[in-house]
Amino acid sequence: MNKEMIENYKKYAFIMPFVGLFVSLLLFVYFFGITGVEGSIWAAALYCALPFLVNTICFLPVCIYFKVSKKSEEHT
């Protein structure tokens, strides 16, 4: 991959948790503010937090990979 593609992927990976947070906040507003929760509140809260959690979990290995690769480039 060329340098430009790697930089674009880094930008995408960095934005992932923020997009997940935005979607989670929208879901919280929708379920708890507009429609109301008819079942378990904890299940609804977990469902709303899922986009943020998944995007953050996907972001962490990518972040670690780029930090390790940056350190290995500095040593060579």
Features:
elongated; 76 residues
Summarize the structure.
Helix content is 89%, strand content 0%.
Low-confidence runs of at least 5 consecutive residues: none
* Distance between the amino and carboxyl termini: 19 Å
State the major sheet: none
- What coarse outline follows from CA principal-axis ratios? elongated
Number of domains: 1
Mean pLDDT: 89
Q: Roughly how much helix do the residues carry, as a percent range?
A: over 70%
Number of strands: 0
Helix tally?
2
Structural class: mainly alpha
Strand content is: under 5%
Order of helices and strands: HH
Please give a structural write-up.
- The chain is an all-alpha fold.
- It has one domain.
- 89% of the residues lie in helices and 0% in strands.
- It has two helices and no strands.
- The protein has helices at residues 3-35, 41-75.
SSE arrangement:
Layout: H1 3-35, H2 41-75
Helix pairs in contact: 1-2
